[in-house]
# Entry
Amino acid sequence: MKIQRLAIIGVGLIGGSLAQALRKADAVVEVVGCGRGKPNLEKAVELGVIDRYTHDIGEAVGGADMVFVAVPLGAMKSTFQAMRGNLSPNAIVTDGGSAKASVVRDITEAFGELPSNFVPGHPIAGTERSGVEAAFPTLYQNRRIILTPLNSTNPDALAKVDAMWQLCGADVTHMEVEHHDEVLAATSHLPHMLAFSLVDVLAQMKENDEIFRYAAGGFRDFTRIASSSPVMWRDICLANREALGGMLEQFAAELTRLSEILREGDGDHLLEIFERAKAARHRFAD
Amino acid sequence: MKIQRLAIIGVGLIGGSLAQALRKADAVVEVVGCGRGKPNLEKAVELGVIDRYTHDIGEAVGGADMVFVAVPLGAMKSTFQAMRGNLSPNAIVTDGGSAKASVVRDITEAFGELPSNFVPGHPIAGTERSGVEAAFPTLYQNRRIILTPLNSTNPDALAKVDAMWQLCGADVTHMEVEHHDEVLAATSHLPHMLAFSLVDVLAQMKENDEIFRYAAGGFRDFTRIASSSPVMWRDICLANREALGGMLEQFAAELTRLSEILREGDGDHLLEIFERAKAARHRFAD
# Structure
């Protein structure tokens, strides 16, 4: 597979790394970047991530056979609206959004129907850094990419997006939209909410400077994800608010139950929870 | 300062590392280990961490001028009971328990009064590993040690425990018992509860294998502390249940409030929380 013209809408860590990986695999002829910040786009040209750029989304997608949308979830709908009427007839559109139901809804509303050449996707990769300077060609190596095709999705478009990610060294799987959103709410969105929220609660306590002074290594690891982009996470939480809201409520109830177990001094019950958790974590990580 | 005979009750990571650090500083003549597991104690002799061992606490503390108690919080009271009547008149006793009010209560009950030569302490150091084989002499280098002396604490005993930890390269501070327990509930006990609880909740979801399969790097960091010893954490949570229970309830209420903010789609409010948290974390960590 060779992409003739790849349009990257949003040239940051995610979009930039895809362009670099495809270039490295010799799987793309031309890369057009699109974004709002001129310095970032000029940097992207300078680094060889893209060949040229435009600030106009309609212009960027013109003549492209593959369009990758890597804008914040809150900007998806307006991005799709700007694309409408400017895509080549066979152009394939895919994205990197961390929630999928909202993206499917946004493109459907923007286009007036769900385009069959749209393949919703989510690369499970990233770092806390952002911008094209953070991009690197091996970001997706051995990382999971979840595609969430719908019944109406064109199988050829899906196969090409599959192939594109495999060329980046990624491990591609398919999942239903709703299932993706639940799995991600559990493993990513809820933990981020907990980390942000815990740091915020502690920061508002009296003598919080002292509190943070005694925060040891484990706490640093635990709250590292609270260093991620607040704007990106606001968008993700809002986009996946249904799945995430339910889990937050469920988890709050679980904590209330835990505080009752504590008050009762029920050590056996605590031990049972802790042992189950340790065993479960051991099954999936070091 | 030179300790003539150091008794280490509980020869694991914490107790073993203290013995190694003091030996390295040439600050101790003889180290007597005490514990229940024979293989661990034999290993400790083999590794040169202790000179000899006994399973009898009364015998271990006999003739010691410094006693360091590094047993699980749940074993503190019986350990102190076994010491009573066997200590040398000027022996100093200190400990490494992660909650301090409960240890002060335990020794007071065991001795019938609070001994003035007891200096409650808590080294903020450790790894997820345990046992004497995990011990190393630089564990306390540049780490914080909190001592929580009481009004009745003998100033000479406090000065000696201060000096002991400084010889290990640690940064020693003093704090009130209740304040220590609140700071630690916030920065350590609550995060551990959240990590154990989150992993447990996810492990009980349908298709939990799939959920964990898509858990990326951030989730691993976030839940690493759920690999810690379940028994140790049961003891810590029970020992500090007052401070911890209040914080759990407060945090559960905060999560419920967050789920309402989500339901209302109040992005500005979310952004405010996330930005405050990111800024607060930036103040204390990388």
Observations:
- The first strand of chain A starts at residue 3 and ends at 9.
- Residues 179-284 of chain A form a domain with the 6-phosphogluconate dehydrogenase C-terminal fold fold (CATH 1.10.3660.10).
- Residues 73 and 227 of chain A are 19 Å apart (CA to CA).
- Chain A has two domains: 3-175, 179-284.
